[in-house]
Amino acid sequence: MATTKWIKENSAITELTGYPLEKMNKDRLYKSALKLNSIKTQLEQHLSIKTNELFDIQDKIVLYDLTNTYFEGEKRNSKLAKYGRSKEKRSDCKLIVLALVVNIYGFIKHSSIHEGNFSDCSSIEAIITSLDNVIGKHKPVSLFDAGIATKENLATDDLGKYFIRTSMDMKQDVIVWNVNNTIRKIENTFRTLKTDLDLRPINHKKDESTIAHLNLGLLSYWLANTIRCQLKLNGINYCWKEIVRIGNTQKVITTTGYNKASKEIMVRKCTEPEEKLEALHTALKIKNRPFTKLKSVYTNRNKKTANH
Description:
Layout: H1 2-10, H2 13-17, H3 26-38, H4 40-55, E1 61-70, E2 95-103, E3 108-115, H5 124-135, E4 141-144, H6 173-180, H7 184-196, H8 207-232, H9 240-247, E5 252-258, E6 264-270, H10 275-284, E7 293-300, E8 303-307
Parallel strand pairs: 1-4
Antiparallel strand pairs: 1-2, 2-3, 5-6, 6-7, 7-8
Helix pairs in contact: 3-8, 4-8
């Protein structure tokens, strides 16, 4: 519902795509989300291959971690929504868990959704199996947060220290430490998903819609991360929220009037980009103005003609 309102009031997406504004509604968006989720695995594998080709990535290091997001509402009939350890300190809400494997560029290699009480330590075997299917014969270095280890595995009387455990034969401690520091990439991924792409909270009632909602968030992240990586190649290091803010400086201006035949004339013009936005357009190799002028003539309430 929020997306529908945003499209109608604050977006030129219908001009960019040619999709009629009057056909844009929440029901169509729901159906699109469910359809996209039905091909989630194929999309994920396709995007993984394409971004590797685009940025010449070999996936020598991948990172695994879990996060969760919470629901608004009781979710009485949900099989996924469970009480668990909330990373947003929302112990009053039921949760759902998202598991991600990403490479050091932040691109997703594998994702899965679990019940809200799903624990880190119970997932490692399934994740290793999934990585075999996704990565193939070239085995990367896999980094896991400490949450996957049980207390028994890391039992010690000397607390307060930071533990790094590796199965690799590394002679220099600094190499182990530098490899481990890349875990911040996945933390940035979660931050972008939750904060910049509004993955939380979840308001859907059905589990099917909840899963589709999370998948849409992941697809949005693919787009956001691809844009950020392209900009970084050109020395531009803005966060996604700043990119959106700069993009919002370009507006579409609508002028409406009537001619002598009492026909309603509507003209929509796209403004010139400001300096920062023009730099983004240049780096991304896209037009500074997606359209110059659109003119629509309404002969009655149900019929119109349009000219560019």
